[in-house]
Amino acid sequence: MEEDADVLLTAREAMAILRVSRSTLVRLIAAGQLTGLKVGRCWRFWRGDLAACVRQATGPDVRTPPPGRRKNDV
Predict the structure, then answer these.
(1) Model pTM score
(2) What are the boundaries of each domain within the chain?
């Protein structure tokens, strides 16, 4: 898996992995949440950076479940 992190992917492949639109990909880059490499006119992304972005976006769910409704709660 470590050697997979060294693979460069196209913007289209990055969008497919992250399941985002091109504009969202641009926003992630501008916000510093994703790093990319510009080669000529094309962007390339390290697979490892995409995996880190996914891990960051899908962190632990810290929401508490809503309280259950009891019969006496009217």
Answers:
(1) 0.69
(2) 3-57
